[in-house]
Amino acid sequence: MITPIIDDRTIKKLQAIINGVQTIAITCHKSPDGDALGSSLALCHVLRRLGKDAVVVTPDMAPRALEFIPGIRDLIVFTKHEARARKALNDAQVIFCLDFNSLHRIDRLGEIIIPLNTRRVLIDHHLDPEDAFDVMVSFPEASSTCELVFRVLMQMGLLRLMDRHAASCLYVGLLTDTGGFAYSCDNPEFFEILASIMRRRIDRVNLYNKALNTFSADSLRLQGYAISEKMQLFPEQGASLITLDKAELERFNYNRGDTETLVNKPLAIPGIYWSVFLREDADRIKVSCRSQGDFSVSDICARYFNGGGHENAAGGEFFGTIDEAVELFHQVLADLFPTVNPHEQSTNKDNEEK
Ligand code: 5GP
Ligand code: MN
C-alpha cells in the first residue's frame, strides 16, 4: 500500500485552489534535469486533462539529451521566449514550483514571481525550503519530485488522469534522481509507485536508454578524457576532484548535459566516498558534488559554494577562476580533514607513475 503521507489539510487546500482556477503555470529550477522536467510536464499534462490551461515555464533550456521527454516541445523557456514566459506567469492564477526550495534557484523567474500576488504551491524534495509558498508539499526524504507529484495526484484522486504520457514523464524523474534506482529509493513504496507507473504501459527500456545510456561520441570522449587525465584522488580524505576548463570543453564540442553523470564515476572506486566536479561555464564555475553514506555534500555546497541540494547530491557555483575554485576545494579538504598533511594527499596518474 502507498501511504498517504501528505496531510489532509494540504490536500484539501490544493484541491480548493485547483478547482477555483483556470490558468496555471508550473516552473522548475534552472538547468532543469530529468526530475524537474519530468515532474513539471507530468503535472501539466494531468492538469490539462482536467480541463485547465496549464503551461510549464523554465528559467532556461532543457539539455538536448532530455528532448525525448513527452511534451517537452511545449516548454516556455524564459531565456528564449521572455515575453511569453512573463505573460504566462502574469496570467497564472496559481504557480506551481517544482523541484527547488528557494526562489533564487529559478534566476530571473524568481524576480518576476516574487512581486506577483499569485498563490504559490511548492512540491519539492530539497532540504530546508524557504518560507515563500502558500501550500508546501516538502519531503526531503522522497526520492524525487516525480514521486511527490505521483503522491499528490494519488491523494487528490487524480491518478485516473495519469495516462501513458504522464507516467513516462514521472518515470524519467524516478529513474534519473535515483541514478537508475540505485540510491535515494530505500522506501519500498518507491517500487509500488514505479509499479503503478509501469501499469500505464510506458516504453520502459526505451526511456531507460534515452535517459541514462545515451551520450554523443564527443560526450563519451570528454568523459573518458576527464577520468583518464583530470581525475585527482585524495584517498586519505575519500575524495575525488575533476576539473574541466573552457578550452577542454571546447576541444570536445561540449553541449549542455554532456557531463551530467561524470561526477558519479569516481564513487565507483573503493574508498572514494565523495566526489567534486568543477566545470568552467561562461560566467561562473559550476560545482557538482556527490557522496555515499552519511557524508553530506549539501553542507559543503551551502558553506563554500553558494549552493545546496541533497545529502548525497548537491551543487553550487563559484565566481572566480577555476584555479581559485580548486584552491577553495583544498580549503574544504583542510577544514574537514585537518590532520591530513596536504603535501601527501593527492594521487593521480602522474603521481602513480613517479
Ligand atoms: P547537479 O550537480 O546535478 O547540478 O545538482 C545536484 C543537486 O544539487 C540537485 O538536486 C540540485 O537541485 C542541487 N543544486 C545544483 N546546483 C545548485 C545550486 O547552485 N544551488 C543549490 N541550492 N542547489 C543546487
Ligand atoms: Mn529532484
Query: How many β-strands, per DSSP?
Result: 12
Secondary-structure element series = HEHEEHEHEEHHHHHEEHEEHEEHH
Largest sheet, if any?
6 strands, parallel
Shape: globular
Unreliable parts = 350-354
Strand order of the largest sheet: 3-2-1-4-5-6
- State the CATH superfamily name of the largest domain: inorganic pyrophosphatase (n-terminal core)
- How many discrete domains? 2
What is the CATH class name of the largest domain?
Alpha Beta
Could you characterize what this model shows?
The protein folds into two domains: 8-212, Alpha-Beta Complex (inorganic pyrophosphatase (n-terminal core)), CATH 3.90.1640.10; 217-353, Diaminopimelate Epimerase, Chain A, domain 1. It is 38% helix and 17% strand. It has 13 helices and twelve strands. The strands form two sheets. The protein has a six-stranded parallel β-sheet with strand order 3-2-1-4-5-6, with helices on both faces. A six-stranded mixed β-sheet has the order 7-8-9-10-12-11. Helix 2 runs antiparallel to helix 6 and helix 5 packs antiparallel against helix 6 (164-176). The N and C termini lie far apart (58 Å). Residues 35, 99, 125, 144-145, 177 line the site of manganese (II) ion (MN).
